[in-house]
Inverse folding.
């Protein structure tokens, strides 16, 4: 027989999967907005509201489980991880929205995007978001490792792109406005990637009871 | 290195043909609280009772292996069981004060041990009642019957009675299971205070109580010791799956 407690844990897991997939779709939309067409603001706002509601819901479920069930060992780690992960996911959603809005104001962006390989960088950010959701669901340590590798790659690629854009802005002053917006977008992609790596760390903690945050990979 | 008070080596206990404890080996550190947890019938109370030879009183019980207290095997035939029980006090699930006055309950043990001096007895009674955190509640009515105290007070009186004969070790068999939350928290606080001076072993069915009060936790199942370790480790990352299943309530 499945206990009431296990039903609550399952419910929590499902809400995290849901909020994760919404953030993933927001990141997808933000990449689309950057690389190709402007995105309809209404839908994006709706998703953002959903994410915020689920974030609160996760806090409420966790609070109730902690108060009423006093979980220990793997259950406690799951609750702790859930609270942190939902926080990270909510931030990913916010950054994606910020990128969607900012992309509208970047004129002649396609030349810069092509020149500094920002298309590839965006795709990688989309990929790492997908993987962070996947690793929570599958608890696969291989995926956790891939996330850390991808995060390092994104960091390096972001630094290189930003450096290039700054040089471009120095030599062609008319690219300053677009270039500055693009630098912010890239910074947000980098932060999305960092949040995904954090999620991977919490999943690692959930599986192995070992705290690995602040360690260098 | 841990300072070991009790060392148990390959201890087995049989009730007739039935083997109730199976090759138990563990070490209990001095001036720490060790909690024994496990489902009903797992042998944790039987094990607790082995520590002061309470099982001697049960017919058909056979014990093998060693129970070394300060390096001395208490099951050695040259050991005087009365002396052991002086050094190893016990508090039971149900408070069991004598139908005497509060004062007499505490003075009873020291009197049997030959202390007759009234001033000395008064001192022992006060110290023991203070240590058991009940002095303030009873100091003005020491001559009243102990049976008139509340359940929580009776249990603390029994702890005072145990302390009055200056034991080294205190065994507690679910000391708070029949008490309300306030009395329970008083007993738990008391356990924390007492460990400064005594080695305490506590059997409890209450997981949270084990987590709150103990330094080490031992998990028993079907007469076997499955795992013993620091309480923090047992409740955050137990080594054995059976322990994890038990403490997370997924047993069986």
């Amino acid at each position: 027989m499945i206990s009431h407690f296990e039903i609550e844990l399952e419910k929590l897991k499902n809400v995290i999967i849901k909020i994760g997939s919404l953030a993933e779709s927001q990141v997808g939309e933000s990449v689309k907005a950057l690389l190709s067409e402007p995105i309809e603001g209404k839908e994006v706002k709706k998703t953002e509201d959903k994410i915020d509601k689920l974030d609160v819901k996760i806090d409420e479920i966790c609070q109730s489980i902690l108060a009423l069930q006093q979980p220990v060992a793997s259950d406690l780690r799951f609750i702790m991880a859930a609270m942190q992960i939902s926080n990270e996911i909510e931030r990913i959603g916010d950054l994606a929205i910020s990128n969607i809005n900012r992309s509208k104001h970047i004129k002649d962006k396609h030349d810069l995007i092509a020149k500094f390989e920002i298309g590839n960088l965006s795709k990688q950010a989309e990929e790492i978001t997908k993987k962070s959701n996947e690793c929570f669901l599958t608890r696969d340590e291989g995926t956790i490792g891939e996330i850390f590798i991808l995060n390092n790659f994104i960091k390096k690629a972001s630094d290189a792109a930003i450096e290039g854009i700054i040089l471009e802005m120095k030599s062609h002053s008319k690219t300053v406005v677009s270039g500055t917006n693009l630098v912010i977008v890239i910074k947000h992609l980098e932060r999305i990637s960092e949040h995904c790596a954090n999620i991977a760390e919490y999943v690692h903690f959930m599986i192995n009871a070992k705290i690995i945050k602040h360690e260098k990979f | 290195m841990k300072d070991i008070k009790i060392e148990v080596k390959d201890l087995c206990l049989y009730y007739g043909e039935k083997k109730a404890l199976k090759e138990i080996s563990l070490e209990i550190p001095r001036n720490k609280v060790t909690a024994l947890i496990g489902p009903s019938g797992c042998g944790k109370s039987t094990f607790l009772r082995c520590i002061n030879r309470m099982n001697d009183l049960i017919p058909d019980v056979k014990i093998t292996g060693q129970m070394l207290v300060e390096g001395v095997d208490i099951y050695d035939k040259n050991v005087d069981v009365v002396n052991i029980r002086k050094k190893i006090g016990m508090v039971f699930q149900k408070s069991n004060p004598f139908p005497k006055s509060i004062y007499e309950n505490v003075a009873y043990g020291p009197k049997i041990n030959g202390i007759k001096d009234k001033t000395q007895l008064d001192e022992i009674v006060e110290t023991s009642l203070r240590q058991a955190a009940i002095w303030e509640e009873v100091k003005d009515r020491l001559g009243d019957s102990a049976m008139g105290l509340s359940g929580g007070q009776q249990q603390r009186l029994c702890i005072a009675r145990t302390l009055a004969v200056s034991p080294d070790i205190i065994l507690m068999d679910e000391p708070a299971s029949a008490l309300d939350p306030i009395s329970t928290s008083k007993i738990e606080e008391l356990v924390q205070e007492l460990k400064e001076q005594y080695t305490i072993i506590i059997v409890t069915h209450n997981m949270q109580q084990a987590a709150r009060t103990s330094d080490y936790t031992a998990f028993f199942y079907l007469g076997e010791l499955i795992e013993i370790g620091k309480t923090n480790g047992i409740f955050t990352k137990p080594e054995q799956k059976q322990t994890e299943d038990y403490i997370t309530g997924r047993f069986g």
